[in-house]
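Q: What would this chain look like folded?
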Amino acid sequence: MASSVIQNWNPENDTFWKKEGHSVAQRNLWLSIPALTLAFAIWMVWSVVVVNLPNVGFKFNTNQLFLLASLPALCGATLRIFYSFAVPIFGGRRWTAISTASLLAPAIGIGWAVQHPDTPFEVFILLALLCGFGGGNFASSMSNISFFFPKAQKGTALGLNAGLGNLGVSLVQFVVPLVITAGVFGAMGGDAQTVTKAGKTAQLWLQNAGYVWVPFIALSALAAWFGMNDLADAKASFADQAVIFKRKHNWLMCWLYLGTFGSFIGYSAGFPLLIKSQFPGVNALSYAWMGPLVGALVRPVGGWLSDKLGGARVTFWNFVAMIVGVLAVLKFLPSHGQGGDFHGFLVAFLFLFATSGIGNGSTFRMIPLIFLTERQREASGKGAAAQEQAVKDANKEAAAVLGFSSAVGAYGGFFIPKSYGSSITLTGGPEAALYCFVAFYVTCVLVTWWYYSRKNAPMPC
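A: My prediction, written as structure tokens:
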């Protein structure tokens, strides 16, 4: 579709940006956002489904349920490594449409599997891994959007794309508990499952947890195919992009993004089961959606604050706040099943979600500036042509790093819920896991301060 390919794109040119660049960039952004929202919904749907599997007759233990909740993140994080480099190779429009359509496989598969109580655990493992397609989409989506906007607006644009995309986590944890209580699709959706709890009988349509997303995924994929653009200037081979593996700041930002986005997605995946295991008298699904909602909504704020105050400064103080948040969670947890304050625990965790969201925005604001500064330093004194090439190289490298760091960060979605499960199995509670998170955040504070935020830092941003 030749008309969908833009041959020349220069958002740093004010005349070009005002005349045509802004409107094209906005259109691509607002078609990208719903596709990414659906990707997050499919990625995190297991966080809700696993809570209901025992209710409809599946005999899985707590550690198996935490494993199912964590596997989509493991697969999604791994896929992000490959998705990071997809947009410059295949084109943003083409890849967005294809990767969005791929979400149909796990959505339909979940709807089928939960209706059959004899479905083996191995099949659920496969479906949980397929949900990782949704996690992979984030890397390519952020890489794609980064090409469209000038550096002065990248923080806000990437914050909007990621923040409103992250709403898919909260959306799935809010919508699924509602749609599984009714036969939304009539006879086409299959029969209800009978649930007996506390002497009361009710009906659930757990298959709706997958089926409800199918029409929206199809529409979003079509909208991306017919409404988005490929940028010829963004074309690059894998070899061109692989230079990031030699860049020190790629690995440093991967570490920091593991602390921000890894926390957001890990806390999101494990929050419902953590509530259920530590406060069994509380309906976990009545509260679990709140955390991802807060984290998603404040992510654009993190990008905006960083545009105004500097990404490194916001990131530094944000990690300090995350340490305080984990210590507060520890204070309100029950000890060996006794005591605890659920409302204090909830407020502390909402604070953690908020800081993870702000950190998501601030770290992604840092990446384009770091690589632009680094390439411009190398081209200093070599003439206008070298400076222009430096900007193009920086954009390609930054896009690849945005995607690759999101891949590393997404492993937090596996390690955090798995850490809860292992900690509970070995020690009787999640405290050991939480203390490990505090130690990790301390390293993030030190890395941010030394390389980016202190006076005379080697790469201020």
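The chain has a mean pLDDT of 89.
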